[in-house]
Design goal:
Blueprint (H helix, E strand, L loop, with lengths): L12 H8 L1 H14 L1 H4 L7 H8 L3 H13 L3 E4 L14 E4 L3 H4 L12 H4 L2 H8 L1 H7 L15 H8 L1 H20 L4 E6 L5 H9 L3 E7 L1 H13 L6 E5 L11 E7 L7 H12 L2 E11 L12 H13 L8 H10 L2 E8 L6 E7 L1
Parallel strand pairs: 3-4, 3-6, 4-5, 6-7
Antiparallel strand pairs: 1-2, 7-9, 8-9
Helix pairs in contact: 4-5, 10-13, 11-12, 14-16
């Protein structure tokens, strides 16, 4: 029997063994990035002794690490005769595997290594370590969690998650393009703006756009730096505070609500959508980005939303990924009409566009 992913269905010892030691793989990726292994090998293959010298690490330990990264197919060895930088002891050198130069070297335009601070962070590990307690209690048992004001994790999210947000922001902007292009003004409120990429993408594409980003003060500092880097700071203002309580200002042509509704129950998420619906101009739009749980297919055919719901279980009081049917109910209860929905190629995110009914 074969699963929807094409792999053999059912459990065997090999699969179970891989699940049990998956944390080791994560640790190796994190360590390689933290120590600068991939940057050290960006220009040419090197022996482990030379890598250790450049990184200031122990030679024996570095050799063990490099071999382990080869086992993960992030690096590969070069025969001794092929390279003058070979290791003096083993006679081999190490080089980046195909794709590593693009994704794991920090100077690459497509660098994705920064996401290790987000999807493999100490914050998430500490929360998931207490999953049994969360299952017993029905929600987070952490004193400091994703709902805590000015949670420090959101600074890392704002600093590093832009790499995964850009493709989704492009899908959002593409979907809104015909509507946005026809408006003389384009005032945008980016709720829980984080890195700010969703609002900044609209500002980059539309000269008439003015942006207001709402988030905690510690997060807004990061978003403000991104606005300067993207040269949209002159058209950007920020609102600090709790998105359920801070004055929103407005009215706005577009409100973006990105990667946030899964932090709350359906009732609480509806309250937020009702708030933003109340500050829309006539003909305005709400753009929602996030996971959407499939109502019609079992978890094994669409695993990402269900796995992400586990993170919400350990990290929030009542958060989870909502099904498509719940989004329809939340939009209707908020006075919003569902106009369009797009998926993001290669990513498990959906873009939902709505307007005031």
């Amino acid at each position: 029997m074969v699963s929807a992913s094409g792999s053999a269905a059912g459990l065997d010892r090999r699969k179970l063994h891989a699940m049990m030691q998956a944390y080791k793989t994560t640790s190796l990726v994190r360590t390689g990035l933290e120590l600068g292994v991939f940057d050290a090998l960006a220009e040419a293959p090197l022996g482990s002794g030379e890598v250790a010298r450049r990184l200031g690490t122990d030679a024996r330990a570095t050799h063990i690490l490099l071999n382990a990264l080869c086992a993960l197919e992030l690096l590969e060895t070069v025969p001794a005769a092929a390279d003058a930088g070979r290791d003096e002891t083993s006679g081999e050198a190490f080089r980046l595997a195909a794709g590593a130069d693009e994704l794991l070297v920090s100077s690459s335009p497509a660098y994705f290594g920064g996401m290790v601070h987000v999807i493999a962070s100490d914050w998430e590990w500490e929360a998931l370590r207490r999953l049994p307690e969360a299952v017993r209690s029905g929600g987070t048992v952490l004193d400091v969690n994703a709902e805590t004001p000015e949670y420090a994790y959101w600074e890392d999210f704002a600093a590093y998650a832009a790499a995964i947000a850009r493709p989704t922001a492009d899908v959002m902007a593409d979907t809104l393009e015909p509507w946005a292009r026809g408006r003389d003004e384009l005032d945008v409120l980016d709720v829980a703006c984080g890195h700010g990429v969703y609002g900044f993408t609209m500002a980059e594409r539309h000269p008439q756009a003015r942006l207001w980003g709402l988030d905690w003060p510690n997060v807004v500092e990061v978003a403000a730096r991104h606005a300067e880097e993207l040269q949209v700071s002159e058209r950007t203002r920020f609102i600090t505070g709790d998105m359920f309580e801070a004055p929103l200002g407005g009215p706005y042509d577009l409100v973006t609500v990105t990667n946030v509704l899964h932090h709350f129950s359906e009732e609480r998420a509806t309250q937020l959508l009702s708030r933003v619906a109340g500050v829309l101009k006539p003909g305005g739009r709400v753009a929602i980005v996030g996971f959407v749980r499939d109502d019609e297919h079992p978890p094994e055919q669409d695993p990402e939303p269900h796995l992400f719901s586990v993170l919400m279980l350990v990290w929030t009081s009542l958060g989870e990924v909502h099904p498509a049917s719940a989004y329809e109910k939340m939009l209707a209860a908020s006075g919003l009409s569902h106009l369009d929905q797009q998926t993001v190629p290669g990513l498990p995110f959906h873009v939902i566009i709505a307007e005031r009914a």
